[in-house]
Amino acid sequence: MHLDRSPAPGPLYPERHVSLEEYLALPEDGFQYDMIAGVLYVVPSHSSDHAFSEGKASLRFGYYLESNPVGRLYLELDVYLDDGDDDIVRPDFCVILNERVSEIVRGRHIHGPPDIVVELLSDRTERRDRGIKADRYLRSGVREFWLIDPRDRSVEVRYNVDGVWESVSGDVLTSRVLPGLEIESAG
């Protein structure tokens, strides 16, 4: 068996300025993007630690929702933050409560802020996840923002309290949107 070891072609559209219509019409190039303030940012492939931690965290949320069917978990789906800035982001996963699912989930996209967004941090995404994406999630009305760092196995939760992030970290973190959900930080 022969493995092709030639370098894969890079993304075709990094840091390109586009409109919402142009974003939605982009041909598939095998890469995923966030579009914030009209600029495309490549969402890099995950490391094995990132992928393992994402699977573990999404299972915790998924098990909770299986036992308490109050919402749905969505992995790696475009989220259109339709609050006037036409930004599209792709969180690692998110939760939308049942009463909002039919209102904002449309085909391949979510049109509006999820109730909970979870991002797993990496060297290549941490600055954007903690910065511009966190700001966009807050402005659009995301209620909880979970930041999981597989590198040191820490967890931080940001609760949207009247348009300001209230940040909490510790050994055991709880959800205000999903009562009874607890995630242990191993950091």
Question: What keywords describe this structure?
Answer:
187 residues, alpha+beta, 6-stranded mixed β-sheet, 4-stranded mixed β-sheet, 4 helices, disordered N terminus
Overview of the structural elements:
By secondary structure, the protein is α+β, with helices and mostly antiparallel strands. Helix content is about 25%, strand content about 35%. It contains four helices and 14 strands. Strand 7 and strand 8 form a beta hairpin. The relative contact order is 0.14.
Summarize the structure.
The protein has 187 residues and is of the alpha+beta class. The chain contains four helices and 14 strands.
> How is the main sheet built?
6 strands, mixed
> N- to C-terminal separation?
42 Å
H/E element sequence:
HEEHEEEEHEEEHEEEEE
The percentage helix is: 25-40%
The side-by-side strand order for the widest beta sheet comes to 3-6-9-10-11-12
- Mean pLDDT over the residues: 86
SS-based structural class?
alpha+beta
Q: How many DSSP-defined strands? A: 14
**Annotation field: number of helices:** 4
Shape: globular
Strand content: 25-35%
Chart the SSEs and their pairings.
Layout (H helix, E strand, L loop, with lengths): L19 H6 L6 E5 L2 E5 L4 H20 L3 E5 L2 E4 L5 E3 L3 E5 H7 E2 L2 E3 L4 E5 L5 H15 L3 E6 L4 E8 L2 E6 L2 E3 L7 E3 L3
Parallel strand pairs: 4-8, 9-10
Antiparallel strand pairs: 1-2, 3-6, 4-5, 6-9, 7-8, 10-11, 11-12, 13-14
